[in-house]
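Quick sanity check, Hydroxyacyl-coenzyme a mitochondrial:
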Amino acid sequence: VQQRRTLAATPHYDIKKVGVVGLGLMGHGIGLVSAQAGYEVIAVEAQAPALESGKKRIDKSLSKILSKAVEKGKMTLEAAEKEKEKVERRITYSLDLAALRDADLVVEAIVENLDVKIPFYKQLGSLVKPTAIFGSNTSSLKIGDFAAPSGRPQQFVGLHFFNPVQLMRLVEIVRLHETEPAVFETVRGYVARIGKTAVTCQDTPGFIVNRLLVPALVQAMLMKERGEASVEDIDVAMQLGAGHPMGPLHLADYIGLDTCLFILEGWVKKYPNEPAFIVPSSLRALVQGGKLGRKSGEGFYVWE
Ligand code: CAA
Ligand code: NAD
């Protein structure tokens, strides 16, 4: 007796086109490493000046990476020039979210603010093809809070990169209860192809790294506020005494003080009984004064 086999209803996920939304500190790096790995990249920004500066950042970083490869004898100048053209050709830029309609994976790296991310995901879910996977680069927000508004929590993961994306080798993949196994495996394949190591974690505040790292940055800020040591001495101490590549206040400037503040304010509001979540008054004052760290030219340090 012949039996008919029905194909499983699970969609087939295959990543060829990667959409990146937000070309700031993180998004430009995510777009670049994806294009370098051979993916077609659609890079989307909200406003023309930010799109222009994202483009410039990608260009500058790619030139730096390739000239370093030439310097080290890993590539000839001609090969580097060809590679630059090839990588650049893989990236298209747009101010229109609809440009992502046939992306296979969309990585979101927009501002760390739930009131911005929720409407964003509602809109994204209605524009992008139904089999596309969404990955949020949020540092601290609960992924489930915007996975549901996207309309496809089963195709949603946290995809948490580290700054600077071009150099940092880790990506945290946050797996929701709803994330389909095939989606998770496809995303793992993407992370491997861009040359990063993946770790998996649950949808908890700060995942693994930020849950441990951000409270340490807070403690350094409080130490400075109490006048126990200078900014420079706190940083040198953690570099030479604990082997950290950057001291905590240098790192806070590097991450962006606005992002640090968004993370901590969000946590304090959502988890008021967690003693590790504190907003240092010096952090709030710096951000209120427009001092956002390296990206604005001043934070705990003055940046040239
Ligand atoms: N693009 C391309 N090349 C870059 C680059 C970029 N964006 N940034 C640096 N490089 C190049 C440099 O030109 C340099 O090239 P040469 O070796 O030819 O000089 C090379 O990479 C190394 O740069 P540095 O000399 O600055 O190297 P370093 O040894 O000081 O390392 C670092 C830099 C990797 C950033 C290191 O200082 C470090 O690991 N710092 C800590 C970073 C960290 O903790 N990041 C995580 C932040 S938390 C986070 O991201 C999560 C969150 O949600 C907030
Ligand atoms: P950023 O301020 O440098 O860049 C955010 C970009 O998003 C800006 O260029 C802005 O124009 C754009 N944007 C805002 N709303 C948008 C919208 N609706 N559509 C399209 N573009 C929009 O911020 P960042 O540091 O790159 O952080 C982005 C995300 O990555 C945040 O969720 C942050 O928590 C997370 N993250 C940051 C770091 C870090 O070290 N800075 C590390 C890991 C993760």
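Posting the structure with no commentary besides this: Residues 61, 64-65, 68, 139, 162-164, 166-168, 210, 213, 245-246, 251, 255 surround acetoacetyl-coenzyme A (ligand 1) (CB under 6 Å).
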